[in-house]
Amino acid sequence: MAAVSGSSSLPVAEGNPRGHGLGSRAAAALVFGSSAAVLVVEIVALRLLAPYLGLTLETSTIVIGIALTAIAVGSWLGGLIADQLDPRRLLGPSLGLSGAVVALTPAVLRTTAEWAPALLLLIASLTILVPGALLSAVTPIVTKLRLTSLAETGTVVGRLSGVGTVGAIVGTVLTGFVLVARLPVSGILIGLGALLVVGAALVEWRTRGWRGTPALTVVVVAGGLATTVAPGGCDAETRYHCARVVADPDRGSGRTLVLDGVRHSYVDLDDPTFLEFTYVRALASVVDSAFPDGEPLAAHHLGGGGLTFPRYLAATRPGTRSLVSEIDSGVVRIDRERFGLAPEAASGIDVRVEDGRLGLRRLEDGSRDLVVGDAFGGVSVPWHLTTVEAMTDVRRVLDGDGVYVANLIDHGGLDFARAEVATLRETFDQVALVGSPVDIGRDPTATPEGGNLVVLASDRPVDLRAAQEALDARRTGWRITTGAELTSWIGDARPLTDDYAPVDQLLQPSGTRRDR
Fold first, then answer.
1. 3-class DSSP state for residue 298?
2. Which of 67, 223, 304, 346 could form a Cys-Cys staple with 104, CB 3.0–4.6 A?
3. Who contacts 49 (Cβ-Cβ below 8 Å, separation ≥6)?
4. What is the 3-state secondary structure (H, E, C) of 137-190?
């Protein structure tokens, strides 16, 4: 009779009468939302950890690896437990507990970073692994609830897998392009936690009646309140950084821009010629010796920060035109609102929110007297601004007498700095390195300490004696090395290219917080 009526002759899945009241739309919504939430947690975790672990390839790899582990563990255990227990008993707790952990994450991580930094990586792993696994368990649980006949297995599993993938894509795009640009990371996680608890309440009401939700709601509220008093807050959370502006207690007009816990720029609001950081004084010394006093320049700056050096050029070389490529619009907003950046017509400084390398490509050949490299993502130079190809583009936009100067930072064996200087030697005729005598090989009996270095590159000779006098006048304590001494310092370092630039692996970060 079954064959005559056209109905399936395959058996009905045991113990699952018509999906336990979970409709196809509700099932799709749960899988979509939980998959999206996993990716939101993963991306926001990167932002939350950046002030403490740095925004490096290693940090990103760790977070991605933990998130993938959570997805694998949650999918496996979710399916296993759904076969042993009533799936209706699992959905609400999975959503609710994950929401509680997500809401508590900002306060827990920031408190751990300040009070027990040795445990930060472990706690961070748990705050990603636990909610990620619980949320990833939703898909196999929902699949179990929706399977009413073995004849529908392929359709149900395929549909829900597709919906979950689309949810993950939407979560990624929404977080990267919308949420992070408009909301603080703590607000994103607390809001997500609240949504997950609401979802748990709806599921509980639909399948079993109200159970446990009030207690989880209290946890979410507690997470929000704890975040307001937890250490490590920001003045502003930009698209890329946790940013603070710190007043100098010893200099009323002095301000320090701190990004992800690292001092990036010092700006004197009343006197732009006051240069606090040693590496900025070194930049000024090199540039002042490379060009006649007071001569206006056409300059391009890769990285803006607090715009200390563009301000210095505007003050000491009236008529200078500085074009700045700064990728973080939030930092530019701080420049205008907190550091008093005037419009281009008055300041001579044109700041464009763009990637530095893309900004270089837009410049005409021979259009710049000076290019300044001072871009950093976390504690390292973005790798694509370090390569032979990038330096070839720098050389292209410089005129025949143009000069490129760059701020480098490295520690330990200075492997990245050596590779970058080797890269510049592949591109320019004249290269010199400026830094502490210990770090640039001028004191071979001492072990390099690391920190900031300044490299100078050009196709024409620069008066290095005048540069050294300027360094001495500014009391930097730095020296210059070039020629055979520089060759010896570089050693067997391999130039960086677009095809090979392991900057994060070469660079050795400092064990303590220092100036960028």
1. strand
2. 223
3. 59, 63, 109, 120, 124
4. CHHHHHHHHHCCEHHHHHHHHHHHHHHHHHHHHHHHHHHHHHHHHHCCHHHHHH
Q: Is the pTM of this model over 0.85?
A: no
Angle at alpha carbon of residue 63, lines to 62 and 64, rounded to 5° = 95
pLDDT in tens, 370-380: 999 999 876 67
Residue 456, number of CB atoms within 10 A of its CB: 26
Mean pLDDT of 361-368: 96
Q: Calculate the average pLDDT of the chain.
A: 87
pLDDT in tens, 320-350: 999 999 999 999 999 999 999 999 988 999 9
Side-chain-side CA neighbours of 399 within 13 Å: the count stands at: 8
Contacts of 470 (CB under 8 A, 6+ apart): 284, 285, 286, 288, 289
Q: Could you tell me the two tokens for 68?
A: 């993938």
pLDDT, tens digit (0-9, with 9 covering 90-100), for 463-474:
999 999 999 999
Residues facing residue 431 across a β-bridge: 457
The continuous run of DSSP H or E covering 237 comes out as strand 236-237
